[in-house]
Design goal:
5-stranded mixed beta sheet, 24% strand, alpha/beta, single chain, 10 helices
């Protein structure tokens, strides 16, 4: 009876956390009907109703609320014990759920994961790519890659690298329209704006006499930096892009950095972040250590390692 109740307690705790049977089923890799049967069997064994079920929502009974507090502690202890055994084995196993920005994930994660998974074949990677910021705890992610000036104090963060932002254009565009020598000249050029920034039409620079802010009039605006970088390569205008997006194009001569004397260094950081936990799972710790090592020399050196065979 105890083992069956432990299974039911685990499922019940996940139902409460997800506030639905279907959400718990997704997180547990079970069918919705199996989740419902586990909870029903647990209630039958205990002889008490834990959940009020309606067609629209679930709610805890008073007994269920009290029981959940104990279940959550039991589940945490079980997970801690499993993590400890994994540490003793020294080999990460199971599923590692990672969130990363769309373009960064597409450009870098396949190469990073190819080597990492070759080292740890017992791991399954569940990769989620999106430019919006996910809630790691609520959405069940083990960790995320964040590209920002990190401010969220509820997460633990390790900096992987800093990155610069470059003003770039294609050689064809510069040959036809000329190369601006001062940020103020951008007003007379076609520009491409990345709209996920707080002020996408205001580009800031550092001049010898202090900060310079230029309001550009973009001919194309888009919420994806990959799109604007490709548009720049097609000669549609001048773009301002982070190093991790245009590094390859600059390396291959498809784009040219302009206004170099005015570009500000270290526009932001690339971080590996994870929820604050009493026991960091081995799979997360090993992967973050791997990322730190790969980016050790900075983003520029990482680019060189990727493109050295070109």
């Amino acid at each position: 009876m105890l083992i069956g109740n432990l299974d039911g307690m685990t499922v019940f705790a996940r139902v409460v956390e997800e506030q639905s049977f279907s959400g718990a089923a997704r997180k547990l890799g079970m069918s919705k009907s199996a989740v419902s049967k586990h909870v029903t069997k647990l209630e039958d064994n205990l002889g008490i109703r834990l959940l009020n079920r309606t067609t629209r929502r679930l709610s805890l009974t008073d007994a269920g609320a009290t029981f959940y507090q104990h279940c959550a502690r039991v589940v945490e202890e079980i997970e801690t014990a499993e993590h400890a055994l994994t540490d003793l084995r020294g080999t990460p196993r199971g599923t590692l759920r990672i969130s990363a920005p769309l373009t960064f994930g597409q450009r870098y994660m396949p190469d990073l994961l190819a080597e990492f998974m070759g080292m740890y074949p017992g791991l399954h990677i569940d990769m989620h790519l999106a430019d919006h910021m996910v809630d790691l705890v609520a959405e069940g992610f083990d960790m995320a890659i964040r590209i920002t000036r990190l401010k969220d104090s509820s997460l633990i963060a390790r900096k992987l690298a800093e990155f610069n932002a470059y003003v770039v254009a294609s050689p064809d565009y510069l040959a036809e329209h000329g190369e601006p020598q001062h940020p103020s000249e951008l007003v007379g050029h076609k520009t491409l704006a990345y709209t996920n920034l707080a002020s996408p039409n205001v580009w800031d620079f550092e001049g010898p006499d202090g900060p310079i802010n230029v309001r550009v009039n973009p001919v194309i605006s888009c919420n994806n930096g990959e799109f604007t970088s490709i548009a720049a390569m097609r000669g549609l205008g001048i773009a301002r892009e982070p190093e991790f997006i245009v590094g390859e194009a600059l390396h291959k001569g498809k784009l040219v950095e302009i206004l170099k004397p005015f570009n500000s260094p270290a526009r932001g950081g690339i971080y590996a972040v994870y929820p604050e936990r009493r026991h960091l799972p081995t799979k997360v710790r090993i992967f973050i250590d791997y990322l730190v090592e790969k980016f050790r020399g900075g983003l520029c050196n990482f680019h060189k390692s990727l493109y050295s065979g070109d």
